[in-house]
Amino acid sequence: MKIARFSRNGKIAYGVVEDDKVREISGDIFGEYTVTQTTYNLADVEILAPIIPSKLVAIGLNYIDHAEETKMPLPKVPLIFFKAPSAIIGPGQDIIIPKDSRRTDYEAELGVVIGKKARYVKESEALDYVLGYTCCNDVSERDIQRSDGQFARAKSFDTFAPCGPYIVTDIDASDLKIELIQNGVVKQSSRTSNLVFNVPQLISFITRAMTLLPGDIISTGTPAGVGPMHPGDTIEVRIEKVGSLINRVKLEE
Ligand code: MG
Asked: Ligand 1 centroid to 10 CA: how many Å?
Protein backbone atom coordinates (compact mmCIF):
# COMPACT_ATOMS: atom_id res chain seq x y z
CA MET A 1 0.00 0.00 0.00
CA LYS A 2 1.17 3.53 -0.83
CA ILE A 3 0.05 6.12 1.72
CA ALA A 4 0.09 9.76 0.61
CA ARG A 5 -0.44 12.94 2.59
CA PHE A 6 -2.07 15.47 0.35
CA SER A 7 -3.70 18.85 0.25
CA ARG A 8 -6.80 19.75 -1.74
CA ASN A 9 -8.59 23.08 -1.50
CA GLY A 10 -6.66 23.85 1.67
CA LYS A 11 -7.68 20.60 3.38
CA ILE A 12 -4.96 18.12 4.35
CA ALA A 13 -5.70 14.39 4.43
CA TYR A 14 -4.10 10.98 4.07
CA GLY A 15 -5.01 8.68 1.25
CA VAL A 16 -4.11 5.45 -0.48
CA VAL A 17 -2.56 5.84 -3.94
CA GLU A 18 -4.02 3.56 -6.61
CA ASP A 19 -2.63 4.16 -10.11
CA ASP A 20 -3.32 7.85 -10.88
CA LYS A 21 -5.85 8.30 -8.07
CA VAL A 22 -5.75 8.78 -4.33
CA ARG A 23 -8.49 7.35 -2.12
CA GLU A 24 -9.04 9.35 1.06
CA ILE A 25 -8.39 7.75 4.45
CA SER A 26 -10.65 8.51 7.41
CA GLY A 27 -9.13 8.06 10.87
CA ASP A 28 -5.58 7.65 12.15
CA ILE A 29 -3.04 5.94 9.88
CA PHE A 30 -1.21 4.80 13.05
CA GLY A 31 -4.37 3.39 14.61
CA GLU A 32 -7.91 2.78 13.42
CA TYR A 33 -8.76 3.97 9.95
CA THR A 34 -10.93 3.22 6.98
CA VAL A 35 -10.23 3.80 3.31
CA THR A 36 -13.24 5.76 2.06
CA GLN A 37 -14.92 5.83 -1.35
CA THR A 38 -13.78 9.44 -1.87
CA THR A 39 -11.17 9.54 -4.62
CA TYR A 40 -9.25 12.32 -6.35
CA ASN A 41 -7.01 12.39 -9.38
CA LEU A 42 -3.41 12.65 -8.24
CA ALA A 43 -3.03 15.52 -10.71
CA ASP A 44 -5.69 17.49 -8.80
CA VAL A 45 -4.05 17.32 -5.37
CA GLU A 46 -0.76 18.54 -3.94
CA ILE A 47 1.31 15.70 -2.52
CA LEU A 48 2.91 16.79 0.76
CA ALA A 49 5.77 15.33 2.78
CA PRO A 50 4.26 12.07 4.10
CA ILE A 51 4.74 12.97 7.75
CA ILE A 52 6.07 15.71 10.03
CA PRO A 53 7.60 13.54 12.74
CA SER A 54 8.43 14.28 16.37
CA LYS A 55 12.00 13.53 15.36
CA LEU A 56 14.03 12.68 12.30
CA VAL A 57 16.84 10.38 13.40
CA ALA A 58 19.64 10.17 10.86
CA ILE A 59 22.54 7.75 10.65
CA GLY A 60 26.06 8.73 9.60
CA LEU A 61 28.55 6.58 7.68
CA ASN A 62 26.20 3.63 7.31
CA TYR A 63 27.31 2.39 3.88
CA ILE A 64 30.75 0.83 3.56
CA ASP A 65 31.33 2.57 0.21
CA HIS A 66 30.45 6.03 1.63
CA ALA A 67 32.73 5.57 4.66
CA GLU A 68 35.56 4.73 2.25
CA GLU A 69 35.00 7.82 0.08
CA THR A 70 34.97 10.10 3.15
CA LYS A 71 38.13 8.35 4.42
CA MET A 72 36.43 7.80 7.77
CA PRO A 73 36.76 4.55 9.73
CA LEU A 74 33.61 2.42 9.89
CA PRO A 75 31.67 3.15 13.07
CA LYS A 76 31.59 0.35 15.64
CA VAL A 77 28.05 1.35 16.63
CA PRO A 78 25.54 3.40 14.59
CA LEU A 79 26.40 7.11 14.56
CA ILE A 80 23.17 8.96 15.33
CA PHE A 81 22.25 12.59 14.81
CA PHE A 82 19.05 14.57 14.42
CA LYS A 83 17.69 16.68 11.61
CA ALA A 84 15.10 19.29 12.57
CA PRO A 85 11.57 18.23 11.52
CA SER A 86 11.11 21.86 10.37
CA ALA A 87 13.60 21.13 7.56
CA ILE A 88 11.22 18.62 5.95
CA ILE A 89 9.78 19.41 2.53
CA GLY A 90 7.70 17.26 0.23
CA PRO A 91 8.09 16.18 -3.38
CA GLY A 92 8.18 19.05 -5.83
CA GLN A 93 9.18 21.63 -3.24
CA ASP A 94 12.45 23.51 -3.70
CA ILE A 95 15.67 22.80 -1.82
CA ILE A 96 17.06 26.23 -0.91
CA ILE A 97 20.85 26.53 -0.76
CA PRO A 98 21.87 29.13 1.86
CA LYS A 99 23.33 32.30 0.31
CA ASP A 100 26.80 31.94 1.77
CA SER A 101 27.07 28.16 1.34
CA ARG A 102 30.10 26.96 -0.61
CA ARG A 103 29.09 23.32 -0.79
CA THR A 104 25.64 21.85 -0.17
CA ASP A 105 25.47 18.12 -0.93
CA TYR A 106 22.71 15.65 -1.72
CA GLU A 107 22.55 12.31 0.13
CA ALA A 108 20.05 9.68 -1.08
CA GLU A 109 18.75 7.66 1.86
CA LEU A 110 16.11 5.06 2.66
CA GLY A 111 13.69 6.48 5.23
CA VAL A 112 11.98 4.19 7.73
CA VAL A 113 8.64 5.43 9.10
CA ILE A 114 7.87 4.09 12.58
CA GLY A 115 4.32 2.79 13.03
CA LYS A 116 3.98 2.38 16.79
CA LYS A 117 5.66 3.47 19.99
CA ALA A 118 8.97 1.63 20.31
CA ARG A 119 11.34 1.24 23.27
CA TYR A 120 13.84 -1.57 23.95
CA VAL A 121 12.88 -3.36 20.76
CA LYS A 122 14.64 -6.61 19.89
CA GLU A 123 16.13 -6.90 16.40
CA SER A 124 13.95 -9.94 15.78
CA GLU A 125 10.78 -7.88 16.44
CA ALA A 126 11.94 -4.53 15.03
CA LEU A 127 10.12 -4.74 11.71
CA ASP A 128 6.80 -5.04 13.59
CA TYR A 129 7.32 -1.38 14.52
CA VAL A 130 7.74 -0.17 10.93
CA LEU A 131 4.76 1.36 9.15
CA GLY A 132 6.62 1.66 5.86
CA TYR A 133 9.40 3.26 3.88
CA THR A 134 9.99 6.52 2.04
CA CYS A 135 12.75 8.32 0.15
CA CYS A 136 14.85 10.88 2.01
CA ASN A 137 17.50 13.35 0.91
CA ASP A 138 19.85 14.19 3.80
CA VAL A 139 20.90 17.58 2.41
CA SER A 140 24.13 18.68 4.08
CA GLU A 141 26.13 21.92 4.19
CA ARG A 142 29.59 20.42 4.15
CA ASP A 143 31.73 23.36 5.37
CA ILE A 144 29.50 23.89 8.39
CA GLN A 145 29.43 20.16 9.08
CA ARG A 146 33.23 20.17 9.24
CA SER A 147 33.67 23.42 11.16
CA ASP A 148 30.90 22.82 13.72
CA GLY A 149 31.86 19.23 14.50
CA GLN A 150 28.19 18.71 15.43
CA PHE A 151 25.78 18.01 12.58
CA ALA A 152 22.67 19.87 13.74
CA ARG A 153 23.13 23.19 11.92
CA ALA A 154 24.70 21.76 8.75
CA LYS A 155 21.82 19.35 8.22
CA SER A 156 18.83 21.32 9.50
CA PHE A 157 18.62 24.43 7.35
CA ASP A 158 15.02 24.90 6.19
CA THR A 159 14.29 22.62 3.19
CA PHE A 160 17.29 20.33 3.96
CA ALA A 161 15.11 17.24 4.53
CA PRO A 162 13.09 16.35 1.42
CA CYS A 163 10.94 13.25 2.12
CA GLY A 164 8.42 11.31 0.09
CA PRO A 165 6.58 10.95 -2.09
CA TYR A 166 4.68 8.25 -0.16
CA ILE A 167 4.96 5.81 2.73
CA VAL A 168 5.12 2.38 1.12
CA THR A 169 4.03 -0.47 3.37
CA ASP A 170 4.40 -4.25 3.17
CA ILE A 171 7.71 -4.38 1.32
CA ASP A 172 11.00 -6.06 2.18
CA ALA A 173 13.52 -3.19 2.24
CA SER A 174 16.60 -5.30 2.94
CA ASP A 175 17.93 -5.37 -0.62
CA LEU A 176 16.60 -2.51 -2.72
CA LYS A 177 18.39 -0.48 -5.37
CA ILE A 178 18.96 3.11 -4.20
CA GLU A 179 20.01 5.89 -6.56
CA LEU A 180 20.57 9.63 -6.66
CA ILE A 181 19.99 11.21 -10.04
CA GLN A 182 21.18 14.78 -10.66
CA ASN A 183 19.85 16.40 -13.84
CA GLY A 184 19.27 12.95 -15.32
CA VAL A 185 22.75 11.64 -14.44
CA VAL A 186 23.09 8.79 -11.92
CA LYS A 187 25.46 9.97 -9.15
CA GLN A 188 24.82 7.43 -6.42
CA SER A 189 23.89 3.81 -7.01
CA SER A 190 23.94 1.11 -4.38
CA ARG A 191 21.69 -1.37 -2.63
CA THR A 192 20.25 -1.26 0.86
CA SER A 193 21.92 -4.62 1.45
CA ASN A 194 25.18 -2.60 1.66
CA LEU A 195 24.07 -0.90 4.89
CA VAL A 196 26.61 -1.37 7.68
CA PHE A 197 23.76 -1.51 10.22
CA ASN A 198 20.47 -2.74 8.78
CA VAL A 199 16.99 -1.50 9.67
CA PRO A 200 16.29 -3.98 12.52
CA GLN A 201 19.73 -3.28 14.02
CA LEU A 202 19.11 0.48 13.84
CA ILE A 203 15.66 0.29 15.47
CA SER A 204 16.98 -1.94 18.24
CA PHE A 205 20.01 0.33 18.82
CA ILE A 206 18.05 3.61 18.79
CA THR A 207 15.29 2.34 21.08
CA ARG A 208 17.85 1.34 23.69
CA ALA A 209 18.37 5.09 24.09
CA MET A 210 15.07 6.74 23.25
CA THR A 211 11.42 6.09 22.52
CA LEU A 212 10.51 6.17 18.85
CA LEU A 213 7.01 7.50 18.34
CA PRO A 214 4.53 6.76 15.54
CA GLY A 215 5.60 8.78 12.50
CA ASP A 216 9.23 9.20 13.53
CA ILE A 217 11.60 8.77 10.61
CA ILE A 218 14.98 7.05 10.56
CA SER A 219 17.10 8.20 7.62
CA THR A 220 19.40 5.24 7.30
CA GLY A 221 22.52 6.76 5.73
CA THR A 222 23.82 7.37 2.24
CA PRO A 223 25.95 5.31 -0.16
CA ALA A 224 29.04 6.49 -2.08
CA GLY A 225 28.86 9.21 -4.69
CA VAL A 226 27.89 12.16 -2.51
CA GLY A 227 28.35 15.47 -4.30
CA PRO A 228 27.35 19.12 -4.49
CA MET A 229 24.08 20.56 -5.77
CA HIS A 230 23.76 23.80 -7.73
CA PRO A 231 20.90 26.24 -8.27
CA GLY A 232 18.73 25.01 -11.15
CA ASP A 233 19.49 21.33 -10.53
CA THR A 234 16.81 18.68 -10.50
CA ILE A 235 17.59 16.12 -7.81
CA GLU A 236 15.89 12.73 -7.66
CA VAL A 237 16.17 10.09 -4.94
CA ARG A 238 14.95 6.85 -6.47
CA ILE A 239 14.51 3.68 -4.44
CA GLU A 240 13.24 0.45 -5.91
CA LYS A 241 9.64 -0.29 -4.79
CA VAL A 242 9.64 2.87 -2.61
CA GLY A 243 9.42 5.51 -5.31
CA SER A 244 10.96 8.63 -6.71
CA LEU A 245 11.41 11.89 -4.79
CA ILE A 246 12.13 14.86 -7.05
CA ASN A 247 13.07 18.38 -5.95
CA ARG A 248 14.54 21.41 -7.69
CA VAL A 249 17.39 23.42 -6.22
CA LYS A 250 17.36 27.19 -5.75
CA LEU A 251 19.70 29.72 -4.19
CA GLU A 252 18.41 31.64 -1.19
CA GLU A 253 17.31 35.15 -2.19
MG1 MG B 1 23.28 11.20 5.57
From this structure: 33
Predicted local confidence at residue 41, as pLDDT: 98
CA–CA gap between residue 187 and residue 208 (Å, rounded): 35
Output the CA 29–ligand 1 centroid distance in Å: 27
Domain ranges of the chain: 2-47, 56-251
- Separation of alpha carbons 167 and 194, rounded Å: 22
Span 91-144, pLDDT tens digits: 999 999 999 899 999 999 999 999 999 999 999 999 999 999 999 999 999 999
> Which residues lie below 8 Å from residue 108, measured CB to CB, with a gap of 6+?
135, 136, 137, 178, 179, 180, 188, 222, 223, 237, 238, 239
What's the CATH class of domain 2-47?
mainly beta
Distance of CA 11 from the midpoint of ligand 1 (Å): 32
Architecture of domain 56-251: Alpha-Beta Complex (3.90)
159 or 69: whose pLDDT is higher? 159
Is there a shared CATH topology between the 2-47 domain and the 56-251 domain?
Answer: no
- Distance between Cα 134 and ligand 1 center (Å): 15
> How far does residue 233's CA lie from ligand 1's centre (Å)?
19
